[in-house]
Amino acid sequence: MTPEADETNGHRRRRKLTLLVTVWAVLAAAMILLARQNLSVPGLYYDEAVFAGMAKDFITGNVHGEHMPDHQVVRLAGRPFPLFIQTYLGALKSWMLIPAFRIFGPTVAVLRATTLFWSLIALLLLMLGIWRWLGLATALIAGALLAFDPTYFFLSVLDWGVVVPSLVCRCACLYFAVRWNQQSKLRDAFFVGLFAGLGFFNKADFAVILIAVGVAALFCSWRSIVASIGSYSVALSLAGLGFVIGSGPMLLLKIPRILMLTAFAPPPGELVVKLHALGSMYDGSYFYRLMNVGGLFERMHETPTSARDGLGLALIIAVVVFVVIKIRSRQDEHTEGAMAFLVLATALVTLGVMVLPYAARIHHMVLVFPLPQLLIGTVSAALWQIKEMGQSSRRPIRTPVFIGLLILLASQLRMIQKTEQLIQQTGGRGRWSESLDAFCRENRSRSDLTIVSLDWGFNEQLMFLTDEPQLAERFWGFDQRLPVMPTGPHYLYLVHPPKYSEFRYDQAYLNAAQKSGQKVQIEPHFDRENEIAFYVIRFPPQ
Q1: What is the pTM of this model?
Q2: Does the structure show a pLDDT above 80 at 331?
Q3: Domain locations in the chain?
């Protein structure tokens, strides 16, 4: 290749990179504008708060309560550095929050803005990796579809089940794997292994992705993989080293316990719950349903919702088109191989989630992301650039592809808007209610109080949003004989209304307080719709 050709290719590549980054910036700006209200509503959720609370503990050096059972910290510079949130959850997200909390302070707005920042980094890594692998058109289409997917959008702000750190690791793995394949640089192999290990450390269900993608790659490219094993032995060793470094604490400390937990039989009817969750992920209604019932998973699908997006339908169409393309052989081998890999990997990840015990929530279903968006983008770009046709013949294909993508994006944005309207109207219902945040602000500096959580859903928010009260989450140690609680005036007991109670212990105390002949104050706290979000039980001075 001549120097002039090199210069021309370099200039063309820089222009494409500039366009990609510009589109990413536009998508990022749009997501930020759409997510502004979520920095304050809905209220802070228990599973959001636990990661933020342990990051806050390290920043302040002060722990004024007890986090969830199975959490683990190590002392670093005399402060409690988070290591594990639960047996199968590493504290990677807490680590990702610490710098922002150190600079801007530990608040709900900073927590959610930081979560969104990392989600946008994942989106950028994804688009860069796809551009290198499958071209600019596929990167732009898949990036837009992912950015405006309602599930991805709301998890990007209201992250629970630690989806965002997992997405960062997935997208980083893709980016460095493509670079490694194209440039054969050993550092890229190491980074592939490192981010795969960090993804597994973040949450053990990352193993589903690693296994599914590995099997799909082996099935689609086994000849080239077998032929290149010897020449890539050093790179594979470095990738393995990176994985061990990234996942080290999980591998060394938690694997036996995780295997024991997954050995338990799943609850009856779990497959039906999973299918409901999968369907509402693909039609974009999951978060609307979740917010509509205040976090009551068992009631999410009792009420139909009129709004839907078209991701599931688009995925089905993409698979059908792939089969037609494969039969008619209209694409180059590279594109057809990529589509075959994406179809198989999507199917295997979905199957893995279906058979994984207790993996029934949206943060499990979304393990398949961004594969559906990438498959749709790849098929759309292939149809747009289809070979063996003249320009005049392409136009009838390009028009429906363009219109179809616009309709899909519009349906996604409509679902986001509908969900945002519900959140703004209610301020969060039940377990997402902003009224608990207000209670925490009112009592943030009350060192004279001891606040006791008698059910799941209070304590982690209290630990993050207050500084001075003494806190206790007693119900973890309850059995059938409930202990007698102190009745001093400085004790406040938090309980749910009956429909939001998780373990039901709080209902026994609430019923006893209501029937008691003593002077007991039961204070309801209301949400924006004048519905009771929770009760505070207190005993006045004798």
Answers
A1: 0.95
A2: no
A3: 3-426, 433-538
